[in-house]
């Protein structure tokens, strides 16, 4: 049986013309230093985020103060909770690894049993861990985000590209998360039981990419997803791609965006002093129209900033891209201008 269409497909988000023929329903590129939005497509839509969830899992673990050297054991509960996963390499029930090793596997190889074990061994258990995830999201200003478990296997873990850019920014502030999310491989076990886990994002091994932090994700409801902090044309950029249609399309979309950005951006970082064109200066408003996004993106980063001014000032066309708020959370953030990343 074919997989059910993703949430973004059902919402018609793939029909939005972005000027680059991206196969991702949602795309966002932000200058991490100035908070300037350089590219935007449906960035206010709230969708399932699959294993991108694990960036928040890692953030809670690192900031919890729990010992990274403590030995954790994969239990039957971890196996049952991740039964929907079709990963080729999985930790066996009874496997014992340090919290540090579990964290690295969750970030690098997206190992679901490791992520669930991290949540289950949190002080207060999994319920307290999920509560901490949502509390951290609120602190970061991720108001369109909701977590129900630590792996991303549930389609109820939802967020927007705008919120995920904030999450990437917070994750990038931790050297451990940067290191583990971009590690190439990790060997677990000994003798005949030795397994090699590799990074789920092949771009960490690509010579033309300089990636500081990343996370991939996939479940049927979310499509293929990836978030990254990378250096391009001398600038530190945050890239979010959600609900990409096709096994390799999120990487192809990232390459399209990289080439477009390198051809469009002046070398070196540009600092901005606030105002509506800066992410930090935007009041709440409805998202811009698909036509406005496509026109600005096709014209280049400078025009995208101009589109942000139009959205904030009320001169952009009415309507907006598809908006799918998480339960109890209004979306209501401009598509071209997002509150300051932290």
Describe, in short, the structure shown.
With 342 residues, this protein is α+β, with helices and mostly antiparallel strands. It has one domain (7-86, 93-186, 203-313): 3-Layer(aba) Sandwich (Beta-lactamase), CATH 3.40.710.
Give a description of the structure.
The protein is globular, with a radius of gyration of 19 Å. A hairpin with a 5-residue loop joins strand 1 and strand 2 (37-41). Helix content is 33%, strand content 18%. Helix 2 (53-64) crosses helix 6, helix 4 (99-108) crosses helix 5 (112-120) and helix 5 (112-120) packs across helix 6. It is of the alpha+beta class and 342 residues long. The chain contains eleven helices and eleven strands. The strands form four sheets. The protein has a five-stranded antiparallel β-sheet, with helices on both faces. It has a single domain (7-86, 93-186, 203-313), classed as Beta-lactamase.
CATH class type: Alpha Beta
How would you write the strand order of the largest sheet?
2-1-11-10-9
| Helical coverage, percent range | 25-40%
Task: Give the oligomeric state.
Answer: single chain
What's the end-to-end separation, in Å? 43 Å
Q: Architecture, according to CATH?
A: 3-Layer(aba) Sandwich
| CATH fold-type name | Beta-lactamase
Report the β-strand fraction as a percent range: 15-25%
H and E order: HEEEHEHEHHHEHHEEEEEHHH
Identify low-pLDDT runs: 269-289, 301-342
**Major sheet: size, sense and barrel closure?**
5 strands, antiparallel
| Rg calculated over all Cα atoms | 19 Å
Q: Taking all residues together, what is the mean pLDDT? A: 81
> Number of domains in the coordinates?
1
- Give the count of helical stretches: 11
Fourth-tier CATH superfamily name: DD-peptidase/beta-lactamase superfamily
- Give the overall form: globular
Number of strands: 11
């Amino acid at each position: 049986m074919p997989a059910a269409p993703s949430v973004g497909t059902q919402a018609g988000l793939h029909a939005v013309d972005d000027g680059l023929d991206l196969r991702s329903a949602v795309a966002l590129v932000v200058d991490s230093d100035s908070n300037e939005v350089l590219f935007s497509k449906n960035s206010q839509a709230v969708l399932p985020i699959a294993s991108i969830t694990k960036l928040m899992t890692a953030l809670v673990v690192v900031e919890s103060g729990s010992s990274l050297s403590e030995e954790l054991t994969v239990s039957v509960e971890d196996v049952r909770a991740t039964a929907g996963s079709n990963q080729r390499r999985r930790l066996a029930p009874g496997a014992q690894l340090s919290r540090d090793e579990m964290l690295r596997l969750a970030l690098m190889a997206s190992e679901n049993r490791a992520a669930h074990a991290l949540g289950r061994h949190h002080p207060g258990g999994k319920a307290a861990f999920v509560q901490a995830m949502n509390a951290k999201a609120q602190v970061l200003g991720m108001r369109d985000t909701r977590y129900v478990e630590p792996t991303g296997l549930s389609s109820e873990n939802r967020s927007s590209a705008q919120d995920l850019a904030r999450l990437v920014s917070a994750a990038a502030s931790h050297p451990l998360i940067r290191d583990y999310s971009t590690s190439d491989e990790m060997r677990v076990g000994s003798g005949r039981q030795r397994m090699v886990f590799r990074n789920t994002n092949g771009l960490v091994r690509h010579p033309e990419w300089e990636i500081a932090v990343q996370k991939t994700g996939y479940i049927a409801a979310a499509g293929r997803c990836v978030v990254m902090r990378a250096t391009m044309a001398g600038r530190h950029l945050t890239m979010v791609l959600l609900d990409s249609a096709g096994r390799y399309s999120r990487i192809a979309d990232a390459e399209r965006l990289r080439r477009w950005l390198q051809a469009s951006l002046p070398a070196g970082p540009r600092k901005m002093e606030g105002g509506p064109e800066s992410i930090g200066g935007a009041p709440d408003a409805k998202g811009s129209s698909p036509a406005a996004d496509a026109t600005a993106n096709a014209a280049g980063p400078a025009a995208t900033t101009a589109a942000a001014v139009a959205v904030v000032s009320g001169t952009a066309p009415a309507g907006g891209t598809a908006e799918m708020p998480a339960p109890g959370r209004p979306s209501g953030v401009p598509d071209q201008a997002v509150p300051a990343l932290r």
